[in-house]
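User: I'm curious whether this sequence folds into something compact or stays loose and floppy. Could you predict its structure so I can see for myself?
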Amino acid sequence: MARSVGVDIGGTNIVVALVDEQHTVIDRVKTKTPRKGPVSVVDAVVEVLGKLDGPSPTAVGVGAPGPVRDGVITSAPNLVGWREPVPLRDLLADALGLPVVVDNDANAGAFGEWTAGAGQGARFLLGVWLGTGVGGGLILEGRPFRGAFGGAGEFGHMIVHRGGALCGCGRRGCVEAYAGRAGLEGAAVTSFEAGRPTAMRDIQDALGKKRMTASVWARALEVEDPLAVRLFNDAVDALGCGIASAINLLDLDTIVIGGGLADKLGDDFAARVAEATRPRVLMASAERRFLTAALGGDAGVVGAAALARAASEQA
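Assistant: Here's the prediction. I'll summarize afterward.
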């Protein structure tokens, strides 16, 4: 039975998984994403892939943050040291001696959910992934949609507030600036230092976290911390604005929401985003699904592996 490897490169972690033809993860290994540029990330992927327990894969699929064109990451603002375009496909293929497919990480996640998760049966799907940043992936008429130059689906960089909060991409007012974990943490720290009342630092310390992770936010929202509630409301509002604009442009039938915070908060979070979206949609009466990703943290690796398998079968 042919098996492929899926790789999910995030701003915080790299996950590598061996996946079978039924889209079941056989084994997975995770490591921290190196912060010393592209070569260090390639070395980390090669090292972690060698730790997988199982038969040798026939192909490797990679989901990486940023626009991808012909296997080249054209920009990756959430990866340290990735200042120039990086030919990731060729670098990994040379290092591994295997066929490699590289796509945007959110595209891979959307394809995973469409193939084996919550998005099965959708014709026009947007996957929204809340991590260090905010990713987006599109499946249109049953096919991943990448656009003319590989930059389609960059949902996190849709402008929802002209001249608004500074995003990691250097622009202002992006969805990611309000709903990405880095943006949320930056806003929380600024508010904390300005003296606004919050227990978020205490919650972070109690949970033993070095950063304001999804579990910190989930706990702060559970106890109705005023700062966490205010920033979270802003995040939901930004997501609603962005998703509504995407729906008005593409007439989507399914929205799948995933990533760490969505996984922690579950279906209630997806329902809140749906509530923030509907008043801004032109065809508000259409029956659209707002769903929590079913594959959790495996959506990216399952989708990347499926993309690699499809490419190898077509070769």
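Summary: The first strand starts at residue 4 and ends at 9. DSSP finds eleven helices and twelve strands in the chain.
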